[in-house]
Amino acid sequence: MKILMIGMAKVKYMPYLNFYLENIPKENNEIHLVYWNRDLKDEDLSAYTNITFHEFRCYQEDEVSPSSKIFSFIKYKKFVSRVLKSEKFDFVIALHSFPGVLNANILTKKFKDKYIFDYRDLTYENYGFYKKIINKLAANSKATFISSGGFKKNFFKENHSKLINSHNLLSDSLNHRRPPHTRADDEKIRIAYWGLARHTALNKKIIDKIAADNRFELHYYGREQKCALDLKEYTKQIGADNVFFHGEYKPVDRYEFSKNADIIHNVFYSTNTMLSMANKYYDGLVFCLPQIATEGAFMAKCIEDAKVGISCNPNNDDFLDKIYDYYKSIDLNEFNENCQKELDRIIAEYNYGSQFIKDTFSN
């Protein structure tokens, strides 16, 4: 079978790509991948064997208004259309919501029941026309993988049978599982955020509180685009000597720098993130690190239901006191059992999706 996977970022920024690459049998399938080189810098793809790459080169910043991205999106859509028309593909996998939406016409008509729609991140679901498109994509797909159970509310009930939970669990992470730990009373508690920094105003509030509290340190790991650069400059302005920025990292680097973390920062606040699941949620379970998440968010409910962290609000005066008291009250044995129980549940759902992919591309 000749398969086209359509991505919308550089390969290293699509960790969810590995889920498909690990489960599609290589011996009887030919895999092609479209990816978007947004910073125009070359990346090492030598680790990816037996894949034909189709690179779309077009400079595009991530953190700018949607209107300023329109022309780039049009160019990208045309590029994908050319690839689809120039090769005779048997099956397509849209690796994100936007590649699916931008190519909805050709997918739902030419590839009906011959594509997988991988739905992750909310964008314009509040607009009726957009919601209709994603539901049309789901209805005509072989299956629609969703990266958060919270996203089910965006799909009509008649499409729920097409939905499969696709957890952003990197299988290699399971080889780095370790027992939980807590800090001594005289040591600072290290809160860590990793990934692309977003929500500048929210993080400034968190930085303000941590800068004034010598019980904590705050560490940011990830490529430094506008939000991270603004936060870094703000940290200098207020003289926060317990807030640190470590820059870009490779996925495997998490195994080392997570050893220097005590709590995972999973606090987000926007319409787009209240239903989402961050990749760090899974890292927290694997590395046995407690997590803090936004009150009212779907991820916060998952964290509290599994008893692997707490929900909190940076606007509250007791924000850090609540985190400190929670951290100091952790029973390590009980916490370890909770992480394992939740991880077992996720692995079962992950394995179901894996088997679905294997069966689909073995026939």
Task: Please provide a written account of the structure.
- The structure is a single chain.
- The chain is an alpha/beta fold.
- It folds into 2 domains: 2-166, Glycogen Phosphorylase B (Rossmann fold), CATH 3.40.50.2000; 173-343, Rossmann fold, CATH 3.40.50.2000.
- It is 37% helix and 17% strand.
- The chain has a 7-stranded parallel β-sheet, with helices on both faces. A 6-stranded parallel β-sheet has the order 10-9-8-11-12-13, with helices on both faces.
- Helix 4 (104-110) packs parallel to helix 5.
- The radius of gyration is 21 Å and the shape is globular.
- The protein starts with a strand and ends with a helix.
Short précis:
This protein is of the alpha/beta class and 363 residues long. 37% of the residues lie in helices and 17% in strands. It folds into 2 domains: 165 residues, 3-Layer(aba) Sandwich (Rossmann fold); 171 residues, 3-Layer(aba) Sandwich (Rossmann fold), CATH 3.40.50.2000.
Set down the secondary structure blueprint.
Elements: E1 2-6, H1 17-23, E2 30-37, E3 51-57, H2 70-86, E4 91-94, H3 97-102, H4 104-110, E5 115-119, H5 128-140, E6 143-146, E7 163-165, E8 189-194, H6 200-211, E9 216-221, H7 226-238, E10 243-245, H8 254-257, E11 263-266, H9 279-287, E12 291-294, H10 298-306, E13 309-312, H11 319-328, H12 332-360
Parallel strand pairs: 1-2, 1-4, 2-3, 4-5, 5-6, 6-7, 8-9, 8-11, 9-10, 11-12, 12-13
